[in-house]
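Hey team,

Filing this mostly as a record. A colleague (T.K.) asked me to run one chain through the structure pipeline before their review meeting, and I want the input and output archived in the tracker in case anyone asks later how it was produced. No errors, nothing strange. Just documentation.

Input sequence:
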Amino acid sequence: MEEKPAHSRSNILSEGRFHLQKRLVNMGLLVAILLLGSTGVVALLNAREWQAIQKQVQHTYNLLLTLEQTKTNLNGTAKAQRGYRLTQGIESNSKIFLQDYQTSVQQTQQALAQLQQLTADNPTQQTRLQEINTLWQQYQALHQSQVEPSLTENQSEARISSVIQTSDRLQRQIFALLNQMSTTEQQLLEQRIAVTARLTRTANHILAIAYGLSLVSLATIYALLRREARKRHQAEANLRRSEHKFQSVFDELDEFAGLLTPEGTLIEVNQAPLIFAQVTREEILGKPFWEFSLWQQSSELTETAKTAVSQAAAGHFFRTEVTFNSAIGQPHTFDVSVKPVHSAQSKQVMWLIAEGRDVTTQVQLRDALRQERDRSLHLINSSKDGIAAFDETGICTFWNPAMETLTGIPRDRAIGQCEMDLFRSLVPDATLQHLPLGTADTVTAFDFSYFHPQTGQIQFLEAHYSPLHNGSTTVTGGLIVLRDVTRQRELERLKREFISIISHEIRTPLSSIRGALGLVAEGILDDDPQTAKEMVSIANNNIERLVRLVNDILALNRLESGQVDLKYQWCPAVSLVQQAFSSVEALATAHQIHLEATVPNDLWIWADPDWLVQVLVNLVNNAIKFSPPQTAIAVTAEAIASESIIQFAVIDQGRGIPADKLQTIFGRFQQVDASDSRQKGGTGLGLAICRRIVQQNGGRIWAESALGKGSTFYFTLPHPEHQEEGRFFKVERSV
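Output structure:
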């Protein structure tokens, strides 16, 4: 026989080994398939049984939960019934407990019905549930006789006590049956849980054995078939895992991320910008970065993208903030950057990485904080109160304009100064030493006064100091607020003076009235009718004085409080003067005063005629009182076209007014001589009323006088319409 070459024998052996490996592989695959199939069948049967047991376990849990709910509802029913008994005398509370009782009864009914369904497969539990339903019907009927208002009337206390004892007994019986049902279900639950654990252990053992054998078979097959390609497959698997992890992380980034060539071609991008712009990866890859739809929203954005690519390609880091509109048109602000990636061997730019982070919320917060800061600064700077802040070392860090006005210290000089240096010229040292601004942890309030360095006037200030904590307990500064109360103090002083004067003005005539009428009432003057008549006349004069005082006070108060509604109309000046003369004619006759007026015939005035007549009456009345007999009082009126005003003048020949009194006489209760109010019968309010009326008509009032030569009182009114010059006429009244 011819001998086969060695290489043929080698080939045959190799071929035999190959077929043997193939048969072993096939056998191993068959064994693995059989093992896996049998394991799957066993696991399926085991899983079905386990699933059935789990349903039973869940059913038991539901039943136990319903039993607990039933107990809770029964307790609620009993509590509501007891509350109703205790509050039967209080209708509103008893209604609340009655409603709670009805609700608990309804919930208990529902729970018992649910128990009926859940125990349908358990005769023992059904029997117990029937007993519970019977006891519940008795319990409910018994409670109903006590809860419903119509049934509780006229029942004796013995009857109520018997019902309570019976209801407690029924409740205990129901709870006992419910506890028995719970115990039974707990036992079933423990049994089913034990079965579940056994099935789980069995399945785990079977699966462990089967999968162990399968793994051994598959490992052998894999070792035989893939021994030579293991490294290559491992490398490919590692590469795929690496790529998968990179792509997963890359796509899960909330930020926009993209990879570009130095020319700006987009070669990779994550999911965030695609979702934001509602585009697909295929639509944008391979295209220039600036042709991405977000950059195409405006020409400015397109130029920004081109600039970013060119700067990054040149090796520079580019960063800016841009605003893109989302697919639904909502603007978002992004912090966009493009940075170069250099080669490890050289400084050549290999790639460009583009990133975009949505900073809309941060920008909105930043803008809101800026707006809030600006608004707060505007409010503080607009405040009429002086506000200053100090840090923890007592150095001034804020000084608003009102503080400059109040203290006369400019902001540039105040900032950076110590509080002791700033306030030493204003606040007494005794107060300032106990007030370390910026470090004191107590709220402090104090008042002080000083002469303003610019105006030279005394000012009264209220100071309020508060510590600053910045959200912690440590003092980090302080805030002091100064409020100018000079006007308030002046008003308080005027109020005190007004009360003092008004009390004197009222007390004086009242004393006269009381004294005069007292003499008449006691009969002392019964034998002297003439003196009694004089006493009554004195009382009457003082009563009239009080009436004038009250009327003047009320009129002035209405004028000063803005309660007077002036009824403007065109009225002739002649008519106003005539009405005023008619009102004071009797007084002028008594004082032997001659009244005369010089008024343009066609002079018309836009004013409230009633109040304007009051001004003329008050002025003429005062002139009569202070003019000697056999003298004249003149009233003139003229239109001054250059100033668009109408000017009235009341001229007397009286004793005159001192120069230092010409301004004060228009105040409340101001007289040239303190005895004038008693001798002349005035209230001291007439000129104050005149000033208010003239001011509300848009004019002004003043006086000019020379001692011993008489006085002239002027007042003006606006002249809305220029009147042509007309004839003057003269009205004279001889008295």
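Quick notes for T.K.: The two ends are 183 Å apart (CA to CA). The chain has 19 helices and 18 strands.
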